[in-house]
Amino acid sequence: MTGNGADVCGYCGEEFANPPRWEARAEHLNHVHKFGECNKAKKFFRADHFRQHLKHSHAGTSGKWTNMLENACMKDEPLPEKRVTANDSAPQQAPPALMLTTTGLTGSPVQCSNLLERDPRDC
User: pLDDT per position in the chain (123 positions), as tens?
Assistant: First the structure.
């Protein structure tokens, strides 16, 4: 939400006046940003790759709204199984990963508008 009481699109920062007109917001997300058209199981292990995906696949632009979107999509990834390398007989633990995923964005914009809500983690 901005200082003037408007909600902000999580992809591009466009402001939406309140009270909400959900049809206009859904239209914006579906047609401008192709909401729901990408692989929802896709995982991004680097934040810069997630930002590139937003830019190239969803016409996203960088700004504080992007940070809110990243935080809404971020989750801890469990550590992978221990593995044995050819040079070492002892199993080695892979480094922990922080993952950005689109699985938190599966609801319709009207039912789960975490890209437009005041606090995107509420969804």
Answer: 556 788 999 899 999 999 999 999 999 999 999 988 988 888 888 888 999 999 999 999 988 888 888 888 888 777 667 666 666 665 555 555 555 555 555 433 333 333 444 343 333
Give me the residue spans of the domains in the chain: 7-81+94-112
Q: What is the largest CA-CA distance in the chain?
A: 63
Q: Going by DSSP bridges, is the β-strand pair 7-8/83-85 parallel, antiparallel, or unpaired?
A: unpaired
C-alpha span between 37 and 76 (Å, rounded): 24
